[in-house]
UniProtKB/TrEMBL annotation:
Domain of life: Eukaryota
Keyword terms of this UniProt record: Disulfide bond, Protease inhibitor, Repeat, Serine protease inhibitor, Signal
Record GO cellular component, one term: extracellular space
GO MF assignments: serine-type endopeptidase inhibitor activity
Signal listed as a keyword: yes
Protein name per UniProt: BPTI/Kunitz inhibitor domain-containing protein
């Protein structure tokens, strides 16, 4: 599971478990690390909660009162609030120290890596030593196609870096990564003619 892999090795997705029930993930609301709580009442209402240990949203039965904020009406709402964003989508952060170290961050607005000054500690995972490490991790054209977490069936296009061409794939309707385009033309425009590939 890619998301679990990222949660284990990516600094922005660091999981800290304060007990066998409670986990917190850097960069997301603290309530996302709370356990599912049925509550004090005895109704039987299907809800969703974020399971920080598994890195995904799961369904549970809510009693109708009490509980905590890690409770959502739908899987989509749960994922929107609690599933950690990819580091490449995060804004650059200087951090809280006062050094002046040049680093690189990926700009999802321009689709390329840009220099910024890092303070030497803190910040987030969108922080790379070199331009090439940044592009290798964040360039959407190098990412594999991802269906996403929803179950729709939309025909989109992705850039296949192995073959150097754009190919169709089925997208589930939400999630996935940036290597998805509505048309072959959009895909080739963005990824087909990049000079360093």
């Amino acid at each position: 599971n890619t998301r679990r892999h990222m949660a284990r090795f990516n600094p922005i997705f660091f999981v800290a478990c304060t007990s066998w029930l409670v986990c917190f993930v850097a960069g997301q609301p603290r309530f996302c690390g709370l356990p599912a709580v049925t509550g004090l009442c005895r109704a039987s209402i299907p809800k969703w909660y974020y399971n920080a240990r598994q890195g995904k949203c799961l369904q549970f039965t809510y009693g109708g009162c009490g509980g905590n904020r890690n409770r959502f009406e739908s899987r989509e709402e749960c994922e929107h609030r609690c599933v950690p964003r990819d580091i490449c989508q995060l804004p650059p952060q200087k951090g809280f120290c006062r050094a002046r170290i040049q680093r690189w961050h990926y700009s999802s607005r321009t689709g390329e890596c840009k220099p910024f000054i890092w303070g030497g500690c803190g910040g987030n995972g969108n922080n790379f030593r070199t331009y090439w490490k940044c592009m290798g991790r964040c360039d959407i054209c190098l990412m594999p196609p991802e269906t996403g977490v929803c179950r729709a069936a939309h025909r989109l296009w992705f850039y296949d870096a192995q073959t150097g061409t754009c190919r169709p794939f089925t997208w589930g309707g939400c999630g996935g990564n940036g290597n998805k385009f509505n048309t072959f033309r959009d895909c080739t425009r963005r990824c087909g003619w990049t000079w360093w590939r």
